[in-house]
Amino acid sequence: GNSVTQMEGPVTLSEEAFLTINCTYTATGYPSLFWYVQYPGEGLQLLLKATKADDKGSNKGFEATYRKETTSFHLEKGSVQVSDSAVYFCALRTRGSSNTGKLIFGQGTTLQVKP
Amino acid sequence: DTGVSQDPRHKITKRGQNVTFRCDPISEHNRLYWYRQTLGQGPEFLTYFQNEAQLEKSRLLSDRFSAERPKGSFSTLEIQRTEQGDSAMYLCASSTTSGSGADTQYFGPGTRLTVL
């Protein structure tokens, strides 16, 4: 079946450190891939997405590249800030004529950035 | 565009009671989804509507759960005879199938249910 696996958290970094959160997936066909972020006390927000192999999604300094050969969509940021502290979710959406568009999420990775 | 709204934000109930949650999607979004999120986990799909038609239900959606979207706008999720295992955050999301941003799901703030 379709699934998403994220690296275990929490991830604790100092401000301005480099961030990588690993995400790998299992899916039939060629899914679309997403990163969502959940700030404390808030709802899920779309951070970035990629819809086909080798696409790079980017937003707010975050980037992720759709790697079909390694079935991965790792999230990176060159210099994190305290305000980036949140829970990050990797998700996929499969395609097909009967596709409902439902998202399949990983378990989430908590990022804590210390000043 | 006021975003997806959900009501109530918090609900505390006793085991065995019925509860109903409401979701108002972004206007003109024809797709609406319900997810459930338990502590430390990612959201899990519950059910999906395209306009007023409920087109998919997860195995997670037991017979005690029912969802409606009567006019293709707002949706309700009802849980009958609540159990402690129903305690979770219930999330609603909506999307459109046309235009820029098509098929991107926008989430509401969620309804946190606590069953005592």
Shape of chain B: globular
Distance between the termini of chain B: 36 Å
DSSP strand tally of chain B: 11
SSE order of chain B: EEEEEEEEEEE
Radius of gyration of chain A: 14 Å
Q: Would you tell me the overall average pLDDT of chain A?
A: 93
Largest sheet of chain A: 6 strands, mixed
Give the low-pLDDT segments of chain A: none
| Biggest sheet features of chain B | 7 strands, mixed
Order of helices and strands of chain A: EEEEEEEEEEEE
Mean pLDDT of chain B: 92
Number of helices of chain A: 0
Shape of chain A: globular
Structural class of chain B: mainly beta
Largest interface: A-B, 21 and 25 residues
Oligomer: heterodimer
- How helical, in percent, are the residues of chain B? under 10%
Count of helical stretches of chain B = 0
Explain this structure.
The complex is a heterodimer of chains A (115) and B (116). Chain A is mainly beta and 115 residues long. Helix content of chain A is 0%, strand content 49%. Chain A is built from no helices and twelve strands. In chain A, a hairpin with a 5-residue loop joins β5 and β6. The relative contact order of chain A is 0.33. Helices cover 0% and strands 48% of the residues of chain B. In chain B, the strands form two sheets. In chain B, strands 2, 4, 5, 6, 9, 10 and 11 form a seven-stranded mixed β-sheet that branches. In chain B, a hairpin with a 6-residue loop joins β7 and β8. The mean pLDDT of chain B is 92. The chains are: A mainly beta (115), B mainly beta (116).
List the topology elements.
The complex is a heterodimer of chains A (115) and B (116).
Chain A: E1 3-6, E2 11-14, E3 19-21, E4 23-26, E5 32-38, E6 44-50, E7 56-59, E8 62-65, E9 75-77, E10 86-93, E11 104-105, E12 109-114
Parallel strand pairs in A: 2-12
Antiparallel strand pairs in A: 1-4, 3-9, 5-6, 5-10, 7-8, 8-9, 10-11, 10-12
Chain B: E1 5-7, E2 10-13, E3 19-24, E4 31-37, E5 44-50, E6 53-57, E7 65-68, E8 75-79, E9 88-95, E10 106-107, E11 111-115
Parallel strand pairs in B: 2-11
Antiparallel strand pairs in B: 1-3, 3-8, 4-5, 4-9, 5-6, 7-8, 9-10, 9-11
